[in-house]
């Protein structure tokens, strides 16, 4: 009996160590991918600044990129590890339409004879807490004519927008809904499963249809159920369980 318990304990420790090594390798791969993407972006920016394409520009760009990333180190940007090409294309098409629509609206405001209504600064509470997604959402909103970002509260996930010709409750709510619509498109295109789950929970609570058919909610629930059932597998003692001992004859 003692040998069996020792064997189970050894197997459990081996399984945990193997899982830890797998997690470490996965984290290392993601770190290398992030570093490669950052370095590549800086090299491309360097080449664009010099307006030339040569081996010298590429080599010096790599050197400058390595120096910048080593001397001016910033916390790594956590990538979601997910991108949907279809929804990304939909997001780009929608963004192009909003650019044209916003330009026409600003032109109409500038050309109309009556006095321009005052603008408003609107706080928009986002569902995501990803630095990358918050940045993309803020940049998208700021590039649409008639709107620009005045401040971003990273800790609370709030962006503040100044909207042109916006002083009624209906206009303010419309501008806020536009910013939240940007978030929906961005999360559908490149948000993590957690972002989708949080967004769906909010939409369901408000009586709205969940994005992506609500599949993520089911996935999260299935993972949670699998984790809960895994705690009751033979040979795995749940935390806090009492250990009983049979007295031998």
UniProtKB/TrEMBL annotation:
Biased composition (Basic and acidic residues): 216-230
Annotated TM spans: 31-49, 55-74, 86-111
Source taxon at top rank: Bacteria
Entry-linked Pfam families: MNHE
Similarity section: Belongs to the CPA3 antiporters (TC 2.A.63) subunit E family.
UniProt cross-references to InterPro entries, sorted A to Z: Cation_antiport_E
GO molecular function terms noted in the UniProt entry: monoatomic cation transmembrane transporter activity
Keyword Cell membrane attributed: yes
Membrane topology label: Multi-pass membrane protein
Subcellular location(s) per record: Cell membrane
Keywords: Cell membrane, Membrane, Transmembrane, Transmembrane helix
The keyword Chaperone is annotated on this UniProt entry: no
Major site of localization recorded for this protein: membrane
Record-given protein name: Putative monovalent cation/H+ antiporter subunit E
Stretches the record annotates as Disordered: 215-249
GO CC terms, sorted: plasma membrane
